[in-house]
Every structure is written in C-alpha cells, then in structure tokens.
DNA sequence: GTCTATATCAGGATAGAC
DNA sequence: GTCTATCCTGATATAGAC
C-alpha cells in the first residue's frame, strides 16, 4: 500500500481500509459489498486486505467501531458525550439525530438492516447491537427518570417504558422513511417525545 | 411431483412449493434460503421448481401473497377484514398482532428484514411493502380519525401522525424484541396506544 | 506488508432429454 | 411437469512468492 510513493504505516492502511469499507457498506449495504470491492477501492487485492482483517465480518465490526470512535471525536454531541448529557439534551439529541439522518440514507439503511440481521445470535455484529441498544435504552431511561424526578413527565408516564417506546419510534420511523422518503421522521418523533412531557421541549 | 403415486394437479404443486418456501424463509430468512433448499423439501430438483416460478424473487412474491390470502381466510380477524373493522377494533387488532407475533420469531424476522431490504426500489418486494405500509397507515389513520370525530382522542392528537407513530412503534418494538426477547412488545404498544386516547381500550 | 494464483464452495438460471 | 447436466457468476479464504 503506497500513497505518493511512500509506504503507509500499518495503522494508516488499516484506517484507509476501514473508511473505504464503511463508505461502501453505506452505499451498497453490507451483504452487497464484497471484500474484492473494498480492496479495489483501496487499490489493493483482496488477499492483501485480508492480511489486515481476517474476515469480512471482522472488517464490519472494526468499521462500526471506528465509526463510533470518529463520531465521538468530531460529532456535535458525540455518542461518548451522549450518556453524559442532561435529560432534555438527550431527548433533543435524539430528535436531532432523526433530522440529520434524513440526509444519510445509506447509513440509515445499513443500521436498519444490521439491527435486524444481527438479531441472530451467530451474526458477527450481534453483541455490538445488543450492547448498543442496551446502552441507548439505559441512557434514555435515565433521562426520563430525571425528568420524572423534576416533575416534568405527564402523569402515568413510566421512564423505562417511555424509553423503549421512543427508541422503537426512532427505528420504526426510519423504516417508514426508507420506504417513503416523504415521511417526516424528526417531526413525528418530536411530537411523540413532547406528548410524554408536561412542557414541550424547546428548540426542536 | 407425486403424492401416494398420484400426480398432483399443477395448482397443488404450486401451493406445496409456496408453503415450503414460506416456511423456510421464515426459518432461515429469504437470502439464506436457496431455491435448491426449497426444492429439496418438496422432494424436487430446483429446475423442477423453477418451472413453476421463473425466479426466486417471483417465488418470494407469490409466497407473500399466499400468506396474505391464507391470513384472510382463517385469521381470527384476517387482513381482508382488517380495514373494515371499527376504530377501536383496529387498534385492538394491532395490539393483538403484537402479542401473537411473540410466538412467531421467524416470521417477525422475515418481515422486519424484508421491510428494510425492500426499501431499495429495485428489490423484488419493493412494491409489495410500499403498498402494505400505505394501506396499513391509511386504515390506522381512518381509525384515529373516527375516534377523533367521536371525541375519543386526547387533545392535540392528530390522526395521521398518530397512525405513523403507532406503526413505527410496532416495527421498532419488533427490532428490540428480536435483539432482546424479554421486551414486552404488546405491553409497550398498548401503553402507547392508550396514551393517545381519553379512555383506555378495553380488553387488551 | 502485499501480491499472484488458486482452492473451494454455493448461488441462480438455462438447455434439452424424457 | 420434472429431470440431468451444465453454465456463469461471485463469494470467502488460503498458500506461498516477493
């Protein structure tokens, strides 16, 4: 692997491959992208690529991890910070994500696809997605619990159930949006979140 | 194709194949099931099967259609009747479906997978799923509109948006349930539906 | 660290005999 | 209506040279 005639350090090659892989998974989906395709985009052959990652599955996992890492560093409110936001900021962040996702069809498709595929216990990304959802629900549950403590929830709203519902709404809205791009994901989510609160969120 | 030495009429073979196909799609998913697998279960070879259905995609479509047909005939409140139910029966039916789905992991997985896969315009089941969601949303919207006319909706609930949210909740809850079978799909959906109404639904 | 070459396998689909 | 035989394509993965 060379760029401008200089050999890349091993790590640099790895990152180049990971970025290319994520791009192509996003563009074409995980299954529809072959290791050969990714290698070609990196100007490598596929055995060359497989020196760095033992299998396509390992490549997927590394690419997902890398995306999370990148997101933490340069996201407006990266996922690392996400579970440290205050309650209403967590909810605003969810609505904002829905808004931003509307310009990232490929990525939404990839995650929607993988969420379902990975529900099979032997899928390479199974643990990743189980943990992802566990963490997400925990954060949102805590946000609602905090709002509850402050008396900001409507009567009868149970934090844990509200969190499950909000996460479900996000996923389900994505499916409808994928099938019909006119669907207003962020709008419907905002209406829903607000229906759980005594006072609507500001600035969403 | 013979059973007890008697040749099946063409239609009988078709149905045998369709039932086997749906079973296997449910057990293993659409992509993971090969035409050869299905043919083997029917004690045929795959070219034999492909005499009846020109391609695997055509087989999928026919199997989905057949499932809808069967559902209409012997379902407790089949989908044909579904759009003729009265408003609260529509909502009860949705919650009931969620309850029943908890014993049909394979089928839930198949539809969840296909909903996402089929969002690609060139997928063989694209039109089927677009139409399916359109019809579902229309029915649920009408149900909420009827309830609204009767003054049964909580203040601020907009029928069209409520329908989108309820459908989204169903899909999203399925994903969470696939990843974590302890998720109470029907419970969370019922709570949500009731949060839209002045008086909770009876018997759910 | 990367390549060439290859092994191995499975998929969908078709041609043509019976 | 169903079979045998085959084609073509594309997948992951490995061995071994450089």
Account of the 3D structure:
- The structure is a homodimer of 204-residue chains.
- The first copy, chain A, is mainly alpha-helical.
- Chain A folds into two domains: 1-74, Arc Repressor Mutant, subunit A; 75-204, Tetracycline Repressor, domain 2, CATH 1.10.357.
- Helix content of chain A is 69%, strand content 2%.
- A two-stranded antiparallel sheet of chain A has the order 1-2.
- In chain A, strand 1 and strand 2 form a beta hairpin.
- In chain A, helix 1 packs across helix 2, helix 1 crosses helix 4 and helix 1 crosses helix 7 (105-117).
- Chain A is elongated, with a radius of gyration of 19 Å.
- The A-B interface holds A 31, 109, 112-113, 115-120, 129-130, 133-134, 137, 156-158, 161, 164-165, 167-173, 175-176, 178-180, 183, 187-188, 191-192, 195-196 and B 31, 109, 112-113, 115-120, 129-130, 133-134, 137, 156-158, 161, 164-165, 167-173, 175-176, 178-180, 183, 187-188, 191-192, 195-196.
- The structure holds a DNA duplex (18 and 18 nucleotides).
Provide keyphrases for this structure.
2 strands; Tetracycline Repressor, domain 2; DNA-binding; 69% helix; two-stranded antiparallel ribbon; homodimer; elongated; 204 residues; disordered N terminus; Arc Repressor Mutant, subunit A; mainly alpha
């Amino acid at each position: 692997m060379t760029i401008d005639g200089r050999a890349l350090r091993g790590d640099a090659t790895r990152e180049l491959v990971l970025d290319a892989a994520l791009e192509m998974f996003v563009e074409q989906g995980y299954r529809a992208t072959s290791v050969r395709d990714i290698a070609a985009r990196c100007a490598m052959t596929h055995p060359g690529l497989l020196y760095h990652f033992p299998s396509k599955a390992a490549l997927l996992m590394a690419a997902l991890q890398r995306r999370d890492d990148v997101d933490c560093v340069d996201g407006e409110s990266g996922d690392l910070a996400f579970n440290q936001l205050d309650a209403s900021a967590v909810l605003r962040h969810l609505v904002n994500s829905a808004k931003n996702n509307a310009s990232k069809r490929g990525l939404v498709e990839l995650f929607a696809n993988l969420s379902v595929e990975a529900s099979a216990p032997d899928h390479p990304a199974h643990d990743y997605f189980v943990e992802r959802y566990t963490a997400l629900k925990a954060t949102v549950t805590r946000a609602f619990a905090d709002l509850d403590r402050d008396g900001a929830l409507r009567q009868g709203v149970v934090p844990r159930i509200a969190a499950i519902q909000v996460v479900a709404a996000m996923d389900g809205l994505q499916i409808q949006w994928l099938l019909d791009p006119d669907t207003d994901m962020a709008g419907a989510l905002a209406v829903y979140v607000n229906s759980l609160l005594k006072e609507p969120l500001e600035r969403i």
